[in-house]
Every structure is written in structure tokens, then in C-alpha cells.
Design a protein that fits this description.
single chain; about 120 residues; alpha+beta; about 15% strand; Ureohydrolase_Mn_BS
Length: about 120
């Protein structure tokens, strides 16, 4: 993990730990009008919200914060040119909670990002 943060700093990227929405709100105005590709790794969510991933790690964000982040992007001036959602492993979640959450996330991305 330290290597990822060091690399991000070296190339001018910003990674936020434990929060997404507030740091995102600070960055979005700088991206207005620019083409942006959005990638979401489902393991950003706390395992309580998405246990079906290969890398569960306590301390993730809530599904509510992730959906609010998607809506913030959709309502900004950012030109979303593509998006994906990765790391979903339904085999690890017999309740299908992760798949249902992923479906909701994709739905909100489509409704918000496609103009």
C-alpha cells in the first residue's frame, strides 16, 4: 500500500484514505470540462456493504457515500467518457448483497454519466 501512495504522489495523483466524497468535491471543479474516465473498485466499500470481493478490508466507505460520490460526479461539469466497476466476486457472497449493490452502482453511473 505504501508503494501505491508513493507512486501516486510521484506522478501527481491524489489518493484519499477512508473518505471519498469530501476529497472528491474538492477535485471536481478542477476537472470541469475535461474528459474523465471513472473506475470504481468495489472493495472501496466496507465489507458490511460488499463482502463479495477478493480484497475485503474493514474501514471502507458506505454504499451511501459511494452513491453520493457518483451523483456528485454526475452533477459536476466533468465530461465522463467512460466508467467501470471492478473486483466483484459473487462467489464470496452467497447473500448476493455485493451483486445487488454493484447493479445499483452501475445503474446510477449510467443514469448520471450518460448524456
Amino acid at each position: 500500500m505504501k508503494e501505491e501512495f508513493d507512486w501516486a504522489k510521484e506522478v501527481g495523483l491524489h489518493i484519499s484514505k477512508f473518505e471519498v466524497l469530501e476529497p472528491l468535491k474538492e477535485v471536481l471543479p478542477k476537472l470541469a470540462g475535461r474528459p474523465v474516465y471513472i473506475t470504481i473498485d468495489i472493495d472501496v466499500l466496507d465489507p458490511a456493504h460488499a463482502p463479495g470481493t477478493g480484497t475485503v478490508d474493514a474501514g471502507g466507505i458506505t454504499s451511501k457515500e459511494l452513491l453520493a460520490s457518483i451523483h456528485a460526479i454526475a452533477n459536476s461539469g466533468v465530461n465522463v467518457v467512460g466508467a467501470d466497476l471492478v473486483e466483484i466476486a459473487p462467489i464470496y457472497d452467497t447473500s448476493e448483497m455485493t451483486a445487488n449493490t454493484a447493479s445499483k452502482i452501475i445503474r446510477e453511473m449510467l443514469l448520471g454519466f450518460v448524456k
